[in-house]
Design a protein that fits this description.
The chain has 458 residues and is α/β, with parallel strands linked by helices. The chain is 42% helix and 14% strand. It is built from 15 helices and 15 strands. It has helices spanning 7-20, 33-40, 44-57, 112-126, 128-131, 141-154, 170-181, 196-204, 221-229, 253-266, 321-334, 340-352, 354-381, 406-415, 444-457; strands spanning 60-63, 67-70, 98-99, 164-167, 187-192, 208-215, 218-219, 234-239, 269-273, 298-303, 315-318, 385-386, 395-400, 418-419, 435-438. The strands form four sheets. It has an eight-stranded mixed beta sheet with strand order 4-11-10-9-8-5-6-7, with helices on both faces. The longest helix has 28 residues, at 354-381. The radius of gyration is 22 Å and the shape is globular.
Length: 458
């Protein structure tokens, strides 16, 4: 195993190799994520991440109520090199026991029984003849209306149902946005450090990335202004202004206003990824940039995955009617519609109050765990790192006081059974001197044990 690469990527690559060499045949079923996690002695979230990559890249397909299968059609390959064994055959001594992910919610508290019950009820109520037909590519109308009510009431936006589009997760929303607003050679400004899957979507659409630094007040807007004043043709900027990924900082109000003014002046689009708005532990979350009355060019991206469970692939994007129409045309080429039944099942959870109650319980739990983790970091790493307790989100950002070889740290920790995010997963170019530690899905015992092992290597 290559210890310098994330475990879920290694799992995905090994499965791809098995498909290429014929060890896994087209149409073959894969074990469920729980069974795979047990066989590999891995955290189930790691296996789910690997399967999500393979589903997104088309190596696997998911058949409702049947499971996950190797795609019926994959590229033909000439078998020339020896097979790369599946992770099942890998030595157990490099399988991590503690995984600090990027901020995944605790699936153990997800309202799965309520969701399953609602899904069965919708299935029986609608009837097969309705269920099997096509619906709107933008998503179920009632479900979109519920999202609109939430965005307008809780996040200060002023949207209509024609300005919202439901997708299979936020990454699909990112991909559709990129291919609808970008052309070959367009420049997109991104945060550094930042969210690499979004960068990949922009580059796939032909864009060139322009990284700009992040400090304690968010992305450095003065650097953006300098580029614009020099005549740099910028088409869009991608930001995570609320609990920035990975540093958890919040973009200041002053910079938000400056960014909107620059966007209006130079006509570039603000792509706002509000990936964990729900989990905020202060008085209230900061309102999105997209909610400001004077913002002219925006795309707002959100997800239901953190509200319910990561495996629930429901995301959405909000923007102008014109862009939503372009998104709809593109989506119909690659995916006629989303999971209409699941959208209605989640809608029923919303209408019945299950989502509201779950969020209340989850927020209290995560706030308590955040406070405990904060104390642990001070105890075990207080003299070795700089950090602040985040006011929301499900992860901490730690910066070692001394310059650290982050790649070696990742490798050495993995050998001791602890997995952290590799620095290349959020760095543009030179690895950033920082650690993003998700705490929500780990027990207090795992959190402390992981910190102790990190402390010994810093």
């Amino acid at each position: 195993m290559n210890c310098e690469r994330a475990v879920y990527i290694q799992i995905a690559d090994s499965i791809i190799s098995a498909i290429k060499t014929g060890k896994l045949q087209c149409g073959s079923p894969l074990p469920g994520s729980r069974q795979l996690a047990t066989q590999l002695k891995l955290n189930r979230n790691t296996v789910i991440e690997a399967l999500d990559v393979l589903l997104a890249e088309g190596w696997l397909i998911s058949k409702e109520r049947k499971g996950t299968f190797v795609a019926e059609r994959v590229p033909e390959f000439r078998a020339a090199k020896p097979e790369i064994p599946l992770p099942l055959e890998l030595p157990a001594n490099i399988v991590p026991e503690i995984i600090f992910n990027d901020g995944v919610p605790d699936t153990r508290i997800a309202p799965i029984p309520e969701l399953a019950r609602a899904y069965r009820q919708i299935f029986n109520r609608k009837g097969r003849w309705q269920m099997m037909g096509y619906t709107e590519s933008a998503g179920d109308l009632d479900f979109r209306s519920a999202i609109i009510r939430m965005l307008n009431y809780k996040r200060g936006m002023r949207l209509t149902v024609e300005e919202i589009f439901v997708t299979r997760g936020s990454q699909m929303a990112m991909y559709l946005t990129a291919h609808c607003i970008l052309q070959q050679g367009d420049v997109v400004v991104v945060e550094n450090p930042g969210y690499k899957p979004a960068w990949m979507a922009f580059e796939h659409a032909g864009a060139t990335l322009l990284p700009i630094n992040v400090d304690s007040n968010g992305i450095v807007v003065d650097d953006l202004k300098a580029y614009l004043q020099k005549g740099k043709p910028i088409k869009a900027i991608y930001i995570t202004p609320h609990h920035q990924f990975p540093t958890t900082v919040t973009l200041s109000l002053t910079r938000r206003l400056e960014l909107i003014a620059l966007s209006n002046q130079y006509s570039f689009t603000i792509i706002e990824d509000d990936y964990d708005n729900e989990f905020h532990f202060g008085q209230r979350p900061i309102l999105p940039i997209s909610s400001f009355e004077n913002v002219k060019h925006f795309v707002y991206i959100g997800t239901m995955s953190k509200i319910v469970a990561p495996a629930l692939r429901i995301g959405y994007l909000a923007s102008s009617k014109e862009l939503i129409q372009r998104v709809g045309k593109l989506r119909r080429i690659i995916d006629t519609q989303g999971d209409n039944m699941m959208e209605q099942a989640v809608l029923q959870l919303i209408n019945d109050g299950h989502i509201k109650r779950h969020l209340r319980r989850a927020t209290l739990l995560y706030k308590s765990k955040r406070d405990v983790f904060d104390k642990m970091i001070k105890e075990h790493l207080g003299e070795k790192v700089d950090f602040h307790k985040p006011d929301g989100g499900l992860a901490f950002w730690l910066q070692p006081k001394e310059k650290i070889d982050m790649i070696s740290l990742h490798k050495n920790l993995l050998e001791k059974g602890v997995q952290i995010m590799p620095p290349e997963s959020f760095s543009y170019g030179i690895p950033v001197n920082g650690l993003r530690l998700g705490y929500a899905s780990l027990s207090e015992e795992q959190l402390e044990e992981g910190l102790k092992k990190i402390a010994k290597l810093l």
